[in-house]
Amino acid sequence: MAGRFSSMSRSAGLTLGQKIWSINWGMVFLVVLIFSVGFAMLFSAGNGNINPWASRQAMRFGLGLLVMLAVALIDIRFWFRYAYALYIIALILLVAVEVMGTVGMGAQRWIDLKVIQLQPSEIMKVCLILALARYFNGVSVEDIGRPTYLLLPLALVAAPAALVLKQPDLGTTVMLALAAGAVFFCAGVRLWKFAIVGAAGLAAIPIGWQLLHDYQRARVMTFMNPETDPLGTGYHIMQAMIALGSGGMFGKGFLLGSQSHLNFLPEKQTDFIFTMLAEEFGMVGGLGLMGLYILLIVYGIAIALRTRNQFGRLLAIGLTTNLFLYVFINIAMVMGLIPVVGVPLPLISYGGTAMLTVMVGLGLVISVYVHRDTFISRRGVTEEL
Amino acid sequence: MAQNHDDSTKSKTFSRRALFLAGGQALLFSTLAGRMYYLQILKSDTYKTLAEDNRINLRVLPPPRGRILDRFGVELAVNEQNYRLVLVREQTPNVEATLDALGNIISLSEHDFKRVLREVKRKRAFVPVTVRDNLSWEEVSTISVNAADLSGASIEVGQTRSYPYGSAIAHTLGYVAAVSERDLTGDPLLELPGFRIGKNGLEKQHDLVLRGKQGNSHLEVNAYGRVIRELSRDEGKPGRDAVLTVDVGLQTYVQQRLMSQQSAASVVLDIKNGDVLALGSVPSYDPSAFNRGLSTREWNGLINDHLAPLTNKAIAGAYAPGSTFKMIVALAAMKEGIGAQHSVFCPGSMRLGNSKFHCWKRGGHGWVDLTRGIQHSCDVYFYDIARRIGVDKIAAMANRLGLGQPVGVDLPGERSGVIPTKAWKLANVGEPWQGGETLIAAIGQGFVLATPMQLATMVARLASGGLKVTPRLTRGFNDEAGGIAEPDPVFEPLGIPAEHLRVIHNAMDAVTNNRRGTAYKARIKDEGWEMAGKTGTSQVRRITLAERAAGVFKNEDLPWRRRDHALFVGFAPVHNPRYACAVVVEHGGGGSSTAAPIVRDILTETQRRDPSGAPAFQLQAQAPGQET
Known about the structure:
Number of helices of chain B: 22
Oligomer: heterodimer
Number of helices of chain A: 17
Largest interface: A-B, 50 and 42 residues
Shape of chain A: globular
Number of strands of chain B: 21
Distance between the termini of chain B: 108 Å
Distance between the termini of chain A: 8 Å
Strand order of the largest sheet of chain A: 1-2-3
Strand content of chain A: under 5%
Order of helices and strands of chain A: HHHHHHEEEHHHHHHHHHHH
Largest sheet of chain B: 7 strands, mixed
Number of strands of chain A: 3
Radius of gyration of chain B: 37 Å
């Protein structure tokens, strides 16, 4: 069996040792570095104490690191083969959360499994990209031009997006749609079709506005004009901007952010942790962290470009874009550039699910890298695995 | 091959588009960096200020209010510790249980109970809620002893204004009370909850000096308003003590003596320097009630009382001076060349035009000169000289002696009284002056009104040898850095010839010390302390002919409110005048029978105590060039 593969692909029969050797350790190092920044910020958020946040987050990260490496070492063809299955499981979980989920922060997002709390919408972010990558891997250049071939992948996006929007979780919906869009785009879908979808999206805004919950509308309105309601919904974003702006060039110093430590900054250990960093370490610290993320994203794109199979390429670009969306949406929202939609800063914000999603995603990207020369035909290779 | 071609096309498309995507992401990241530059560099100062505003809370510290001391340094208004019981929710395991426990050891009304439960719910967990105010010392110690079972309950100490002499000097001191909307001047102190300002009397007059300067405490607070630490503190400046001219011992005596009457007022002055030694007004009130807060019933009781307990009648009560006005008419006449030897025959009345003006003595006084006119208080004599000189000359002399305008004592609400002139009547009544009104004015009736303060000032000016004696109530202000004493005033002469004053002096001497004087019975018998003076009885109504015919015009037979006011003004010792006194007894009947004995007692007591002779509370003299 291995012999048949090796004729088609150089690395199909990698031993475990070879795989570990070929893991992109630079990327792993970056992940650890970014987490270290997060650890320091959670330490500061706990007023100079590793409890309650930093210590628990470190344990989660340790677990996440193992999962990431395990995912990276699993053969890319395994992920190819089970891409649809994983997608369907994630979809079932999304339906389940609708039926029996726990309500937290005004939205139904969680499934309580006693041991861990599962947030299926996060899992779906990875599974959707897997499914789309597999789908576009099997579509020929000619067929991509045919609108009928776009119906299935659009349905793959629409189903989870609708379920997540209903939870309601505007941020995740937007992220699902945009990451999927990146996969569509890189798969070669004609640009004018994006224009049609974009126009349809714009046309749907008035309808969508009606479907939004009051708190979501309030957030959008607040975003448009935060000063109008400084003690109500605009309070969070005003305080975040004060924290950020008062940090100046070099910041107030570690553990010395007055906005964060005197609780003026809301959710400083989760969604608004970037403002705390920018308050304590200034623009230098903020740009430094953004630089680390950019390096990670550059790694992801480079991996996508070097991969010799379409599935790996699309998977890598999709997951990298997903990481980009996390970082961009979070930072843009805490700086008042976009409405507050509740997206955490990956590897930094306190919370397990988002970190695990990102690390599984990065594990997959590394797996793509490790198996970059594996051949996956349009019809797939799953029979031979 | 098709597969390979397909993949290479896909790969090319992918690479192109992935790079395009990367470019888009780079663009978006640079937006973030731009936003960061804008917020953290360009707008940094704005946000730094906002962050500091968030963090730092300025708390105003009220300075202790200055005391008010009498001329010997006796405390008249002080700050007392006010113990109040407060409860902090977050330190109490069960608010209701703690309140129950408190209710067992001190008295707590059902109302207090409900109010505390309500406030505890409304306020943040760390904010103390007042359970009860004004705890007695026993209650404080009971709570302290049981402190172990009362977690969350604690005693806070505040300051409250206290007046040790209570109603005895209430009108002079005034009172402090909560700040009302229209008192706000922008001074942040006034916006402090529980802050008290002077609302009347000296507390109002000297409010700014007594108040002091606010202290400031810069506190670091968190988003919930909990204090994290104090960053800096400036204690401010305590209010300065006001030192009065009053002798509180004499004041208490005067107030006590007046209380033999329903409604009366009195002023005692030091003739040499204008010091107000006592200022009586009866009935009085309890000044601490205003600090505590009056109930609507108490307040209505005070303001609807026809005896006007809240009014300081010594400066705000204006009365027809009656015959005490006659010295002024006499001086005006002498100035116009009508000598003391000018004589008038008094048959008991005088006719002017169609009207008949009666003397108080129905049978008349016969031949009367000026001295006898004052000694016997003969009305006809003064009708005659007043008719000769006219009302405007009388008014000019009255003004010189302090009537018709506030004397300028340092108290709010002093009234000016009325000294009518022809022009005054035209302007205020709208009618020309009638000749008969001059006669009425000459005996201190009709339009003429004067306050006890003005009458005492008049006597002091007469007895000082014609100096412009001006009363004062405050000797100066004292603080830790040393006090500032007002220098003893030097009064300018009024320009009244000494021989005229001597005539008046002798006539007033005769009123009390000549056995035919109207106040002989009320003379001071102690050798060297004798007083001189003048009686006055002023009608508050016209005696009708019918009453005269029916023979009912004895005051004692009339209802209280229609009886005459009784007045007496006097000074002592007669040969070396030091103290002047005026007393008005509202509806008291006769000046000689009611008011004169009160003045006798007051001037006797004044000379016995001799407050002007005793060394006063030491105030440092004002250093040259130093501003007050």
